[in-house]
């Protein structure tokens, strides 16, 4: 690749790079998202939509760098690296190239350009999320990334799990406000516990802002409490719905548990909660490999034909020495 100016791809700097493919690279500018949408088309799934939303102007607070590749003055590719305050140990990388410009080394060279900016950040390690068996997965492997996690969106069919007898089991299902301090603290603790593979710094404030506030789409929450003799009425598991009204489509739910529970008890609690959520309507939950109690339950349901997953994402990382 060749440079037209010495300091290319710096925030606010109009300097450009020319790639081996002939495309020119510049910093992201306002309006690029709409121009790229015309070239790329609609996102393939919800993860794809979320990843595209990461493309934005470069900044130092929060730290991020974003570049665009053009063909004849038209944006056809973009790439970004950014640091999350929630997961501070790795920079996230995302790149997308228009189909007619793929397999020409464009993404690899854009990654190299962005890597030149990494020394300006306190974090040196990288991570990226891709669909399983995608070209992007092969790209990450070829560029030194290794898989650290897998995640599925699992749809559980109505009546897939036998409903428990709550009274005899010493359990009570309770509606709880999404603004509950008790719930928010548990959500934060749960999130941190299941993200030891990519250390998180979820706090009560962040949990409320990112997972429970009305702006997130959270429309309601239920918790399963321990009401057995000798129990302390503590929350065993929780479910937060992001689907405002019941429809024939699966309700989008975040299901978690008290991370202080032994794994067997957590699994039992997840099974009971999921059975009640999916008693009459399908439910969709996101399940990481690290969420062992819930994964055990959903894997059994998938094997029995009572649940299915329509999408599987893989997270790859390349950690600095």
Concise summary:
27% of the residues lie in helices and 31% in strands.
Q: Total number of helical segments?
A: 9
For the secondary structure, the number of strands is 15
How much of the residues is beta strand, in percent?
25-35%
Shape: elongated
Which structural class do you get from the secondary structure elements?
alpha+beta
State the separation between the terminal residues, measured CA to CA. Answer: 27 Å
- Low-pLDDT runs: 1-14
Global Rg: 22 Å
Biggest sheet features? 15 strands, mixed
Name the helix and strand elements from N-terminus to C-terminus, one letter apiece: EEEHHEEEEHEHEHEHHEEEHEHE
Give the % helix: 25-40%
Return the average pLDDT rounded to an integer: 92
Topology summary:
Elements: E1 2-3, E2 17-18, E3 24-27, H1 32-40, H2 46-52, E4 59-60, E5 63-71, E6 74-83, E7 91-97, H3 106-115, E8 126-131, H4 135-142, E9 146-156, H5 166-169, E10 171-176, H6 181-193, H7 204-212, E11 220-226, E12 235-241, E13 251-257, H8 263-277, E14 283-288, H9 292-303, E15 307-318
Parallel strand pairs: 7-8, 13-14
Antiparallel strand pairs: 1-2, 2-3, 3-5, 4-5, 5-6, 6-7, 8-15, 9-14, 9-15, 10-11, 11-12, 12-13
Helix pairs in contact: 6-7, 8-9
Describe the structure.
It is built from nine helices and 15 strands. It has 321 residues and is an alpha+beta fold. It has a 15-stranded mixed β-sheet that branches. Strand 4 (59-60) and strand 5 (63-71) form a beta hairpin. Helix 6 (181-193) crosses helix 7 (204-212) and helix 8 crosses helix 9 (292-303). The longest helix is centred in the C-terminal third of the chain and has 15 residues, at 263-277. Residues 1-14 have low confidence and may be disordered.
